[in-house]
Structure formats: C-alpha cells, structure tokens
Design a protein that fits this description.
With about 260 residues, this protein is of the alpha/beta class. It has a single domain, classed as P-loop containing nucleotide triphosphate hydrolases (Rossmann fold, 3-Layer(aba) Sandwich), CATH 3.40.50.300. About 45% of the residues lie in helices and about 20% in strands. The strands form four sheets. A five-stranded parallel β-sheet has the order 4-10-3-11-12. It has a three-stranded antiparallel β-sheet with strand order 7-8-9, with helices on one face. The longest helix has 18 residues, at about 240-255. It is globular and about 50 Å long. The structure holds 2'-deoxycytidine-5'-monophosphate.
C-alpha cells in the first residue's frame, strides 16, 4: 500500500493490518494507543505484542528517528559528532521512510529509501547521534506529519516520546511507561551479556540516565507524560503482567469510547 500525503510518500504494507488467529476481538471499533516513556523501558516490546494481539498497526517511532540519523551518517551530514543542519534540511525531501512486513519476525521492518535497515539502525554509531537528530525541529515536523498520516484510520499502536502529547493528542488510550533506572540498566546489561557483548553496568546506567535527561530537557517536544496518560511503572512486572494490564485498559477504552 502506498499512501501519498502532504507529509510525503509513506510506504506501508498490506500486512500491517493483517489479522492473526487468536487475536483479541474488540469488534469494529478501532482506537489509537500512544505508548510513551523513558529509554529502555521495554515500550516497543509491549506495544508490538499489543498490536499483534489486536490486529493493529505497530509503529516504532524511534526507528524513524534512527533511520533519518542513518541517512545523515551515510550522507556525511555528521561531522565530528555534529549534525549539519542546513545540509539536512536541504536533503529532507530525499528521505523516504517505509515499513516492510518481515515474515519471520511477523513484525514490520523499517526501510530507508526502499532498503531494509532494521538491523543497521540499532548500531552504536546511530545510537550515538540519534538524540541530536531527534532534537531538530524540521526533522520532528517531517516525521510527525508522516506518523499522523499513519494513524488516520486508527487501529494503531505507536511508541515513542511525544506520541500522546504531540503526534496523537486525541489518542483514546495513552500509556506512559517508566521503571527504576537501575532496573532498566540491569535488563539492558543482561540482554547484552546474553549476546556475548562486553559491557559495564555503570556505563549502561549512566547512558540511560543521560538519555532520560536529554529527552526531558530538549526544547523540541520534550519527553513528558500527557495529563491524560496512565502511568505504568514496570519495575517489578513481568512482560505478561504488563501485557495483561494494557489489554485490560484497551478493553475498557474501547467499551467506553
Ligand atoms: O526509542 P528509541 O531509543 O529507539 O529512540 C531513539 C531516539 O529517538 C531517542 O533519542 C529518543 C528519540 N525519539 C523521539 O525524540 N521521539 C520519538 N517519538 C521517538 C524517539
């Protein structure tokens, strides 16, 4: 499916809305679910599962900021760790973000100008520059317009930092996720150790707290809990508990909306 909008060309895939056996049936009524929160809270993991269960579109908005960052790195727009603002603004029209359904993971992979970059955007080099790119006003306008277009027909779960406050202030269900920084760092540490990566716990913890501070204090769309967002502190919750908690909120909202 190709969606042409004033926001630019948005490429999605028919599978985005595919219904899978065993999913929760909430009737025809579709809502928008905004999941915001701190780094490394497991937002995408839970949001992805909820979308799958409901047969909704799942969009990881952080992946979109990461894809633009990858473009900047490849185009030589990051010099000595600084983004060339004018250069990026000139090239913004050349950046097409799309999603492609991955038959193996059963989730959408992000594409940059037609190339699947799902793995590449997770690399350290991208992680090191993405906060800077995500703080640029023109980049945010460019991506927010595309995100809003994706939610036009509802039936979407989007996770990020400004989804309930800027992208979908009208979302029927807003969840704001948080967890104790040491617990988030421990989860990240365990994940990396499981991948045989050499890591230092204190370094991970300081990276997480630095990113929190940066996201909360930037001028453009800082990370903030929307007034009508429900807080989910998952410090002592399993994934299954979080999933059931959110699903119960969804059912409640669908019934009452
Ligand atoms: O969720 P993540 O770590 O993949 O996000 C990557 C970066 O993008 C992070 O610095 C926060 C930023 N981001 C944002 O500013 N707004 C969003 N809606 C999503 C992510």
């Amino acid at each position: 499916m190709l969606v042409n909008s004033p926001a630019g060309r948005i490429e999605t895939n028919d599978y985005l809305c595919s219904k899978e056996p065993g999913m929760t049936d909430l009737g025809e009524k579709k809502i928008i679910i905004a999941v915001d929160g701190y780094s490394s809270c497991g937002k995408s993991t839970v949001a992805k599962e909820i979308a799958k269960q409901l047969g909704y579109i799942f969009i990881d908005s952080g992946a979109m900021y990461r894809a633009v960052t990858l473009y900047c790195l490849r185009a030589g727009l990051v010099v000595d760790g600084r983004v060339n603002l004018n250069g990026l603004e000139e090239k913004l029209d050349l950046i097409h973000i799309g999603f492609d359904f991955n038959e193996i993971t059963r989730h959408n992979d992000i594409c940059l100008n037609g190339e699947n970059v799902e793995q590449e955007i997770r690399q350290l080099e991208v992680a090191q520059s993405v906060s800077q790119v995500a703080a640029i006003a023109v980049v945010r306008r460019f991506l927010v317009a595309q995100q809003q277009e994706m939610g036009r027909s509802k039936g979407i779960v989007m996770d990020g930092r400004d989804i309930g406050t800027v992208v979908f202030p009208q979302a029927e269900l807003k969840i704001f996720m948080t967890a104790d920084p040491r617990i988030r760092a421990q989860r990240r540490y365990d994940e990396m150790v499981a991948k045989n990566e050499e890591v230092d716990f204190e370094e991970i913890l300081s990276n997480i707290t630095a990113r929190d501070r940066f996201d909360e204090n930037r001028e453009e769309s800082p990370l903030r809990r929307a007034e009508d967002a429900i807080l989910l502190d998952n410090s002592h919750m399993t994934r299954e508990e979080q999933f059931s908690w959110i699903l119960a909120k969804v059912e409640e909202k669908v019934k009452n909306s």
